[in-house]
Amino acid sequence: MNALLSVLTCLAVGAASLPARADVPRKYFEGLPFPMEEIREPRFPSRTFGITAYGAVGDGVTMNTAAMESAIRECAGAGGGTVDVPPGIWLTGPVRLASNIRLNIRKGAVLLFSRRFGDYPLIAGPDGTSKSFRCIPCLYGYRLENIAITGGGMFDGQGEFWRPVKKEKMTAAQWQSLLASGGAVSADGGTWFPSRAAMEGEEYLKTLSGKDGAGAGDYMQAREFLRPVMVQLVDCRNVLIDGPAFANSPSFHIQPVQCEDVVIRNVSVTAEWSAQNADGIDISSCRRVVVYDCSVNAGDDAICLKPGKLSPRQVPGPACENIVIADCVVYHGHGGFVIGSQTYGGARNIAVRRCVFHGTDVGLRFKSAKGKGGRIENVFIDGIAMTSIGREAILFDLLYSSGPGTASTGDPPGSEGGEHLPEFRNILIKNVTCVEAQAAVRILGLGSMPVRGITLDSIAIMSAAGLFCADADGITLRNVSIRPARGPVMSFTRSRAVVVSGASVPDGIRPFLRVEESGPGAITLERTEGGNREGAVELGRDVPAGAVVRR
């Protein structure tokens, strides 16, 4: 009877305060350069289950894991509805979602994830079959249907108790304060870890590599190194994340993996610049996704596609497909919009529109390498404004090398043998304006796999250095204005079928064009006023005079 009374009380409280949201506006599907059906958002019964009816206390001290579990279990058992988190600070361990449930966190509410390592059991991947183990994510779902995370409150991962910190990202005073707090420091003095176990975890995991029968007990010694993702939804269908703030994750903040029909909107992600691997929104092997009206300030990649392994329930094809990202603002991040570094699953039909990047390390960043690459094609980027970019405004890097990650959708089979070459092709980037970047554009292909079919159209960039391109085939620069502080404005090495049309040649910067290690007819200049001036074109040793064709 008491349980029934609690449920009835929950139904009466808060249901009226949870208005239904409109579906994704049609404008996000109209005018796309590829076919994409509109996404139908999840719908939920009007039942509401408040967590306080299950013993939750919002004092920031009481552990509410059991209360959260009970509310979700009863809501799911009743056929679905809303689990409501009212104002307060609600301390909890990991929370596992269920199908047909909306987790609504109201304004004035903080779901504070525990800093105690023992609250995070190790799992062998989402289905329990992985050969390696990780800490269970803070907010988690596997093979769910019709789920949502909504509201105006906040999720706080207390990531500072998990993450390492690099000295180079701290001021002297910050570094000294960090050292005084305890923890451990790497032998070279360059990285602080919250504990010695966290510092030694990476080396310990190497001893388990290839070990037959290694179980959770073997991995326990490295648990403090195996940081949890804040929100990870794996192999789910019909997903909505709308409204909350996500802050201070131990690693990635929001990561849908192998999901389909996903809407992420009106969320903010916040992490310190020094937050190691604290990516903002990582779309991993997902299809039919719309991300819009989001704000991201990340410690790593801000909005990123990670095309990896498909789930058994997904039909064969590109891992990331039919994805729209629009009307977002990125402050700090290793990249404003990123694809990679793992790309072996492939990506196709991607649109990025009307976004602003301020203070990111790189603006538009495409990265991969031998052993982790796949085909990335049909990417259309239109209307990007950038300011104060620390490195390149636009970067293609097929030589990318990175350290160990914190979350994965699985290593590509055969990657150790040098297979899985990255292939980037048919990519259109237009209507981009950037004020203040260290470099305008950098394109680094592979000799065995050049970057192909890249078009930059109506681009205006003010930067310290200009455009550098190596190992590329079929690059078109149309109405591109690059104004670097020093020359060359554009430099091409081992590149062919490059067309520069309608470019603006800045006064006083020489050379405009430098060509190295390229054959006859490698570069075509069209309608490029000033391209014939003395010193405008500079050819490297052994480059034939006919390497540049003027029209």
How would you sum up this structure, described in words?
The chain has 5 helices and 38 strands. It has 551 residues and is mainly β. The strands form 3 sheets. It has a 33-stranded parallel beta sheet that branches. A 3-stranded antiparallel beta sheet has the order 13-15-14. The N and C termini lie far apart (86 Å). Residues 1-21 and 402-418 have low confidence and may be disordered.
Summary of the model, kept short:
With 551 residues, the protein is mostly beta strands.
Name some characteristics of this structure.
551 residues; mainly beta; Pectate Lyase C-like; 33-stranded parallel beta sheet; 3-stranded antiparallel beta sheet; 38 strands; 9% helix; globular; disordered N terminus
Give the biggest sheet: 33 strands, parallel
Rounded to an integer in angstroms, the radius of gyration calculated over CA atoms is: 25 Å
Mean pLDDT: 91
CATH topology label of one domain: Pectate Lyase C-like
Outline, from the CA principal axes? globular
Total DSSP helices: 5
CATH class descriptor of one domain: Mainly Beta
Report the sheet-strand fraction: 35-45%
Distance between the termini: 86 Å
CATH H level of one domain: which superfamily?
A: Single-stranded right-handed beta-helix, Pectin lyase-like
Poorly predicted spans: 1-21, 402-418
Structural class: mainly beta
Helix content: under 10%
Number of strands: 38
